[in-house]
Write a structure and sequence with these properties.
Structural class: alpha/beta
Number of strands: 22
CATH architecture of the largest domain: 3-Layer(aba) Sandwich
Strand content: 15-25%
CATH superfamily of the largest domain: Thiamin diphosphate (ThDP)-binding fold, Pyr/PP domains
Number of domains: 4
Radius of gyration: 27 Å
Low-confidence stretches: none
Number of helices: 21
Shape: globular
Length: 604
């Protein structure tokens, strides 16, 4: 049956077609839909879980692969940093069933804190990397990734980028097979228990495997050549789509360019690449993000004494940051063949530029109330606000301006400790706040809190508990009590976890009750030790309301205090009076507490 599928959905269905048995991951844009799609299409024979973090997820998938079952673990590129510890060792130990590590890179970056390129990790860890260019190719390629993993007893990285993950294509999907069952775990300490001597022997096998795979990949259908021109183009991933569209405009006769498509960037298909460069005069490389293909050709040509001009990111002819696109590729190629790009683009000159849309906290978001309560309580006092990764990162925007640091998931808690310890000899210390979400608390926050108590830090941990993993699409987590298998489990209590760690004081408040919230912050700010405030209020996307607020125009004095202090997208000014967009407003009541004339009221 033909279906219109997003790239991530195609990858998910391809994994099901490959007989995947165990699926684990941690949500992160642009990877999230793979696991969610498998969960939706699950007949009950596949185990699917959102794990507490990427490290846990990878280890769960590895355990399944030890039995001979097929497994996949999903994450975004920064999640691979968390999972890298077990993955490095896993490649030395090996697997029995096919195991795919799905990593979604985010050129731009669009929704990440880094632009790191997972292809480097493949080379670093000596793990093969598959890099699809389209959803159609991804659907087919992931099945080959499982086959290669199983054939060689190794994990395989399947790397896609944002535009492949989220673009759509019509794909013919077959009937789903039953998952590939393993024979069960067979004890063998010489295989499954990693020791230095075993690692040494296996390292030699990895090196030999790299040479063999390079030769095999040269014959793989994903590494192919199109065209017969004297200007060579090497491309991989979604850049291939940009190249073909640009070449179709610039080379109607298909005589100028010869294109080498790289579907497996590591191990590099050396034999196919050497055959490709035989009869070209120069080579230009297009890829996201880093010059992986370009460097491979530079090394290959140097090693084989081939004199070839290679153009790309290293020569600064291709942008080395951000996404590529059809126009970027076309402009570079037009310059290469002396075509006036500006003249080609004249027909688009009247189109307006797309307006910028910076992300903001939703109207009625309880995080806004939490930040505002802390800000009001600390007015006139010296305080530092350490942020974290999630919706609450948006607390950095004006007018809240409540995120002084943001590094990675869970780091707000430990950064605050470093700031505190650097002031140990000061008479007057600033109050250190660490903001963390409920999902992030379970993923990577608990160890930081334990570290704070153990090393006697002075800080306030603010857990912004909105009962979901909001930024990545409202996935469940251990504090909710619901799994991706549809089971109900015991919800893990954040207050009880914090109390068991030994915090000085743990208080739960509703941030929309501003008087209580502000009072709680003031109370805890003068206590020593590690304290915690759980600001608990559900995400507005989960709890819908038919109520909204309205402004009494007679009482409004146009002071703009509600807008200038809160930055709620539902508030705006018209005719010098405050107005509320009823389509956005949830009547959270926060603006009512700010208004000096009490002109804002509830309206059904």
């Amino acid at each position: 049956m033909k279906e219109l599928l997003m790239g991530n959905e195609a990858i998910a269905l391809g994994a099901i077609m490959a007989g995947v048995k165990v699926v684990a991951g941690y949500p992160g844009t642009p990877s999230t839909e793979v696991l969610e799609t498998i969960a939706k299409r699950n007949t009950g024979k596949i185990h699917v879980e959102w794990s507490t973090n990427e490290k846990s997820a990878l280890e769960v998938a590895a355990g399944a692969a030890y039995t001979g079952a097929r497994s996949i673990v999903t994450m975004k590129q920064v999640g691979l940093n968390v999972a890298s510890d077990p993955l490095m060792s896993l490649n030395y130990v090996g697997v029995k069933g096919g195991m795919v590590v799905y990593v979604a890179d985010d050129p731009g970056p669009i929704s990440s804190q880094t632009e790191q390129d997972t292809r480097h990790f493949g080379k670093y860890a000596k793990i093969p990397v598959f890099d699809p260019a389209t959803p159609e190719e991804a659907y087919e390629m992931i099945r080959d990734a499982f086959d290669y993993s199983e054939k060689y007893g190794m994990p395989v990285i399947f790397r896609a980028t944002t535009r492949v993950c989220h673009s759509c294509a019509t794909i013919e999907v077959g009937e789903f097979p039953d998952p590939k069952e393993g024979e069960g775990f067979v004890k063998d300490t010489n295989r499954w228990v990693i020791f230095p001597k075993l690692s040494y022997e296996n390292k030699k096998k990895l090196e030999a495997r790299e040479v063999k795979l390079s030769s095999e990949f040269s014959k793989l259908k994903y590494n192919f050549v199109n065209g017969s021109g004297k200007i060579g183009i090497a491309c991989g991933g979604v850049s291939r789509a940009y190249v073909y569209e640009a070449v179709n405009d610039l080379d109607k006769d298909k005589k100028r360019f010869k294109i080498f498509n790289v579907g497996t960037p590591y191990p590099f298909p050396n034999e196919a690449a050497l055959d490709f460069v035989k009869d070209i005069d120069k080579l230009i490389c297009f890829e996201e993000l880093d010059p992986v293909i370009e460097d491979a050709f530079t090394y290959l040509c140097g090693k084989n004494n081939i004199k070839l001009e290679i153009i790309g990111k290293r020569t600064l002819d291709v942008p080395n940051a951000g996404e590529l696109g059809v126009n970027i590729v076309k402009k570079i190629l037009a310059k290469l063949i002396n075509v006036d790009f500006d003249e080609m683009q004249e027909r688009f000159s009247d189109l307006p530029s797309i307006p910028g849309r910076p992300p903001v906290l939703c109207a009625g978001c309880p995080h806004r109330a939490s930040f505002y309560a802390v800000k009001q309580a600390m007015k006139g006092k010296e305080a530092v606000f350490c942020g974290d990764i999630g919706c609450y990162t948006l607390g950095n925007a004006a007018p809240l301006d409540m995120t002084d640091t943001c590094l990675c998931m869970g780091a707000g808690i430990t950064i605050a400790q470093g700031l505190d310890f650097s002031e140990f000899d000061k008479d007057e210390k600033s109050v250190k706040f660490a903001f963390v979400g409920d999902s992030t608390f379970f993923a990577s926050g608990i160890t930081g809190v334990i570290n704070a108590v153990y090393n006697k830090a002075n800080m306030i941990v603010c857990v912004l508990d909105n009962s979901t993993t909001a930024m990545t699409g409202h996935q469940p987590h251990p504090g909710i009590g619901k799994t991706m298998m549809g089971d109900v489990s015991a919800a893990i209590s954040i207050p009880k976890v914090l109390e068991s760690i030994g915090l000085t004081k743990v208080v739960t408040v509703d941030p929309l009750n501003q008087e209580e919230a502000i009072g709680t912050v003031k109370e805890l700010s003068v206590l020593s030790g590690v304290k915690a405030i759980i600001f608990k209020s559900p995400c507005v996307a989960l709890v819908k309301t038919k109520k909204s607020a309205a402004v009494d125009k007679e009482k409004c004095i146009g002071c703009k205090k509600c807008i200038n202090e809160l930055g709620c997208p539902a508030l705006y000014i018209r005719d010098k009076k405050a107005c509320i967009d009823k389509a956005l407003c949830t009547d959270c009541g926060l603006c009512k507490t700010v208004c000096p004339t009490k002109c804002i009221k509830e309206e059904a």
